[in-house]
Amino acid sequence: MATLEGRLSGIGMTSVRTRTRMIERLREQGIRDEVVLAAMSAVPRHIFVDEALAIRAYDDSPLPIGHGQTISQPWVVARMTELARNGGKLERVLEIGTGCGYQTAVLAQIAGEVYSVERIGALVAKARRNLQSLKVRNVRLKHGDGSADLGEDIAVDAIIVTAAATHLPTALLKYLKPGGRMVLPLAQHDAGGEGVQRLTVLEVTPGGYREQVLDAVRFVPLLSGLA
Ligand code: SAH
Question: Which end of the chain is less enclosed by CB atoms within 10 A, N or C?
Fold first, then answer.
């Protein structure tokens, strides 16, 4: 029986060149962190999308993954990972919004351990299958609501929230180690900011928190409760 890899190789989608082109484009778009670029060139993105969309897997666009959700575009995954890493070492990372598990797999290349939380049960199952097929082992998935307290005793170097928050999810801040960073798309409430989300970095400093508001982005909303 033909494997997914086998079928796609016939149309050139698994060729090293296809992924190399994505990495070249990320460089042109300003991604500088070589560790992040190496991780993204190691993870086959077409595994994470439906077969009918595999031909577009390496385009720089989000794609539907079912349940009204999307796989984030490559630039967004690269940028958030670069901001979370900030040139340092990531022992443990918390991701809110697993979706199909693509960002999870990229983080798993870089961090010692990834803990990822998703509110839609069917997507937790899908991500689990995808990550198992790639033999990614240093990931723990949880069906839970990551906009609230997770009821866990964990300390992480970084939190990546991959759904747009209208307000800072303060319940998560206690999970950050000193110097740790939360990276998230946050809705802007100021002048004319209707519907505008910006990547925001919140860093734990000795005196409190430091906030940086960066690139304009477009994410599905962070919702509460389980589905
Ligand atoms: N990280 C994914 C992005 C998936 S889209 C990738 O690599 O492509 C964002 C995901 O966040 C969706 O699957 C959505 O169901 C999930 N989500 C939204 N609100 C959430 C919440 N409160 N807790 C956990 N997951 C949430």
Answer: N
